[in-house]
Predict the structure.
Amino acid sequence: MTIDNDNSSTALQSFSRRELRELVRSQLQALLEQGNLIGAKALLVPVQPADIAEAIEGLPEPMQAIAFRLLSKSEAIEVYEYLDSTVQQTLIEEFKRQDVLDIVDKMSPDDRVRLFDELPAKVVTRILEQLSLEERRATALLLGYESGTAGRIMTPEYVSLKEGWTVAQSLERIRSLANVSETIYYLYVTDAARRLIGTLSLRALVTAQPDQKIGDVLTREIVYVQTDTDQEEAARIIQRYDFLAVPVVDAEQRLVGIITVDDVLDILEEETTEDIYTLGGVQSGDDSYFQTNLLTVARRRVVWLFVLLITNTATSAVIRSQQEILQQVVALAAFIPLLIGTGGNVGAQSSTVVIRGLNTDEIQGKKALRVIRREAIAGTFLGLMLGLVVLVWAYVLQGSWVVAIAVGVSLVAISILASVAGSTLPFLFQTIGLDPALMSAPFITTAVDVLGVLIYLNLARLILQIQ
């Protein structure tokens, strides 16, 4: 499909967002391969910065720098902030030093710090030295806070007002700072020592009388975070109160920055990705999983696989200890994978909902016993339903009601065990300061495997009356 450059704006508007991104990428690549730089530049004119960034990311690496150079300086700064960190690094290596500085110097401080976190220390030092004094101070301020804290992800570009100013004076100040502030929809009122004393929305300001004092219209009940507050907690606060931004104060209650909702979306995606990897026993590290060296990926993933390999020898030991009953009733061995597999799935479901509840603060520590009891009851219901199906299926396969009853009753017991283990272990590991997501999955698997086989074979011995 080919788009006439003169009608590109109209044509692009007729596509869905996904189709648009793919169309822009394919057309951009085709024009660059033809050497038609004028056509490629015209193609990007009506496209949003986020879509341009995704199109550039989809190009072969040699073309990425060429496409990026087609953008005006103002467009390049905005597009650069949307690019994946690996593409940002590639462009830095391709550009001349001044090209890099012009872009990095105009980035908002929080986006600049996020980029610096991905770059080698030597490159960061070199770029930092060349920034303007004001931008260097702003960046150094954020880099001084620990990674993963509110101080590290905040931006110092906000609008602050004084309590004694009039509404007219305040509006004039907003006009002068609007272009260099992250947001003007939330305004912050500070005293002479920069201590935060209130907040104010732009709506409240523009609907007030011009001669009214800020102190008469501000809100003194402030929700804020400290510089050392965990970034995930800051994200939850913005989510809980439906804020567009939340102020960040230091130990002396001085306003030092704000965290905006766009930063929160990045945090939530980052934390969710980390939790998903962790639940799967994968150590994701700080880099994108799919852009990490395969040897590094294997090294990270093999850790818990080794743990499971070693601990599962306990399952083999249990089976060896019950070898006598298996020799007498060989049919019992056929159902071991079914029982421990089902138990593992039930335990994984319980641990997933509990870990999710802990991460979202929906479940507090004091509710632990209630949650465990609830999951135990759910496990009982699941076991009864699954056990009934398995009982019939075992009889169909083996033609023995005694073996079928042993399998069905065992599945009920294993389901209850798995639900209790899956809901208890996350609380236990959180209490002793370990990551519930990372620790729970392998331990639940091991506990269900070992205890499940032990329960199954002993129940079978009892039901079959084997000495």
